TrEMBL record:
Region Disordered, annotated ranges: 237-264
One Pfam family of this chain: DUF4283
DUF4283 domain location: 2-64
Organism encoding this protein: Arachis hypogaea (Peanut)
Domain Zinc knuckle CX2CX4HX4C: 127-168
Signal peptide positions on this chain: none
Protein name according to UniProt: DUF4283 domain-containing protein
Comp. bias intervals (Polar residues): 238-249
Length: 264
């Protein structure tokens, strides 16, 4: 495993692996830049399994920290052009999980660009395939959701962490002769990842909790105030969301917090 990951991760200096049992592993690196790069690239595909990488915390409980949630990139398809902004993307994603990053990406087909978010999602929750939002003139718009690197996924119960053949819900329904149609289809798997693009004065904002440099924190305080003012102009309704497009830029310097752990 170590040699394979070393090749996938482009030979990070001082890389080593410690098996913690129950499909949990602790990775070691010499350089902080490698930790940031590999953590940010999570989830990784390794031998047809998803490898979720998180920074290792002292005295953390692996089962609670990793099994219950994981990070995944979600694409929004079908947003009106004026709604393809970072703040709108962030507002939408709050319905799905904890927002980690927001960005705009150039895609190959259909639309020239989309909004894409990285979220921390609860694996016990069902994966959604769409959101209904109130677009221009309050007209309802269906926004399709596509998930990147979604391998270990069940279409029957629409949950992460297992495939249909291992679905306990399907087993129970089969025994009681109450098998239903699949909750969701494999179409929710993204077919492309795109290339990140930036407008003038616009950068992705990273909501990670690892902000350790005090000087950087002082600089970010004014940025946070600006973002809060911008978000104040957006409204949300339960069941559907009413969003107002913004014409302002967003600035934030992503700062992630030397070992990392993973769960397959």
């Amino acid at each position: 495993m170590g040699n394979a990951l070393k090749a996938i991760w482009e030979n990070p200096e001082g890389f080593s692996v410690s098996d913690k049992g129950d499909n949990s592993f602790q990775f070691f690196f010499n350089k902080e830049v490698d930790v940031l790069r590999i953590e940010r690239g999570s989830p990784w595909l390794f031998k047809d399994y998803e490898l979720h990488v998180k920074r290792w915390k002292k005295n953390q409980n692996c089962n609670e920290e990793i099994i219950s949630n994981c990070s995944v990139w979600v694409q929004f398809w079908g947003l009106p052009e004026s709604f393809k902004t970072l703040e709108v993307g962030r507002k939408l994603e709050e319905k799905l999980g904890t927002v980690l990053e927001v960005g705009k990406f150039q895609m190959r087909d259909r639309e020239t660009r989309i909004v894409k978010n990285k979220i921390n999602i609860d694996v016990a929750r069902k994966v959604r395939d769409q959101l209904i939002v109130a677009g221009p003139n309050k007209k309802e718009v269906e926004v399709a959701l596509r998930y990147e690197r979604l391998e270990n996924f069940c279409t029957y119960c629409a949950k992460l962490g297992h495939e249909v053949k291992n679905c306990q819900d399907l087993l129970k329904d089969t025994k009681s002769d109450m098998v239903k149609e699949d909750d969701i289809g494999k179409f929710v798997k993204a077919s492309q990842v795109g290339t990140q693009i930036y407008s003038e004065g616009e950068r992705t904002f990273n909501n990670s909790t690892q902000n350790q440099n005090k000087a950087t924190q002082r600089k970010k305080k004014s940025v946070l105030n600006c973002l809060l003012e911008e978000f104040a102009g957006m409204s949300m309704q339960e069941g559907k969301q009413s969003l107002k497009p913004q014409d302002t830029g967003n600035r934030a310097a992503p700062e992630l917090p030397q070992s990392a752990n993973s769960r397959t």
